[in-house]
Amino acid sequence: MGDLFEAYDRVRGRMIALAEGCGPGELDRTVPACPDWTVADLVAHCSGLPAALCSGDVPTGDLQTWLDGLVEARRGRPLSSVIEEWTSIDEGLEGLLSGGAGLLFDDLAVHEHDLRGAIGRPDHDALEVDTVLPRTLAGLAGPVQAAGLGSIEARCGDRAWRSHDADPGWVLVTTPWEVTRAVNSRRTAAELRALPHEGDVEPYLSVLDAHLPLPTAPLGEL
User: Fold this and answer.
1) How many beta carbons lie within 10 A of that of residue 222, not counting itself?
2) Is 53 helix (H, G, I), strand (E, B) or coil?
3) Rounded CA gap, 138 and 152, in Å?
4) Are 131 and 110 a contacting pair, CB within 8 Å?
5) Measured between alpha carbons, how far is 130 from 171 in angstroms, rounded to an integer?
6) What is the crossing angle of helices 39-54 and 63-74, to 10°?
7) What are the tens digits of pLDDT across the range 150-184?
8) How far is Cα 131 from Cα 128, in angstroms, rounded to an integer?
9) Whose CA is closest to 143, among 107, 169, 106, 161?
10) Which terminal Cβ of the chain has fewer Cβ within 10 Å, N or C?
11) Could you count the other beta carbons within 10 Å of the beta carbon of residue 15?
């Protein structure tokens, strides 16, 4: 699980560098993948979520209300303060990741590219493939099985990953970056249908949409 913290730290480092390198007005840009947030809000979410959990602040009511409160509490703070908070919790954060809170990494790996899309700095190679893809697909195993569907398979060159041990019903034949964006609901239904694939995508659209609502308009990512 130490490897998971190391992967998290690499993603965090890239995001901090991107945020600190933002030009005038870029921190105030709306994030297309998270249209209720600015770039500054996205960084506040990524810092505030693990900081809250490390301090013992856990949701006791509506999860979205709690998450929104974490962002609101940091709105208006200098970026340097938000980043300092994020980098000061490593001991607790490593404990969270080793204690089963791996969703913190999954969330961050997706948000890195939400950030990149918002400020126009794409990098499809900025991805911990061997950590991200197995975890992302495995997170869909339960909903896919509950729907009575075959596994989701990602076939990327000479490598392949499956959501779970079952014959695939939908095989994405594309890059690791595109698979990650697709199965994390960063593509519209029409875009998912258009991706190179094998099998029948249709029954999987409702699974993805229920897991995390699909966007209704393209994000315009490069």
Assistant:
1) 8
2) helix
3) 9
4) no
5) 18
6) 110
7) 999 999 999 999 999 999 999 999 999 999 999 99
8) 6
9) 169
10) C
11) 24
